[in-house]
Design a protein that fits this description.
mainly beta, 2 domains, 1 helix
Length: 90
């Protein structure tokens, strides 16, 4: 099973372990997870939240960071300076 070690509301480690191992770790807090979780994510007691990718992005009701404008179809990267999507020509 996958577990995230939580310290002060932040993920500080992720491990794969048996439930028996986790229950013996009385000095640490582990939370089982599915999906994508990594060191630096926050945990609000129910949900894991990825770090904010850019200062202008906001967290939606599904705990997913959203850019100020929707990403166009294609190969684009966010440019925080201009607050716009920049197309990559490849």
């Amino acid at each position: 099973m996958n577990y995230a070690q939580i310290l002060d509301g932040l993920v500080v480690n992720v491990i794969v372990a048996d439930a028996d191992f986790v229950t013996t770790q009385t000095d640490k807090t582990y939370v089982e997870y599915t999906g994508s979780v990594g060191i630096g994510f926050s945990y609000d007691g129910t949900n894991f939240i990825a770090p904010q990718p850019y200062p202008s992005w906001t967290l939606d009701s599904n705990y997913i960071w959203q850019a100020p404008t929707a990403k166009p179809d294609g190969n684009f990267d966010w440019d925080e300076t201009t607050q716009s999507w920049i197309k990559h020509e490849r």
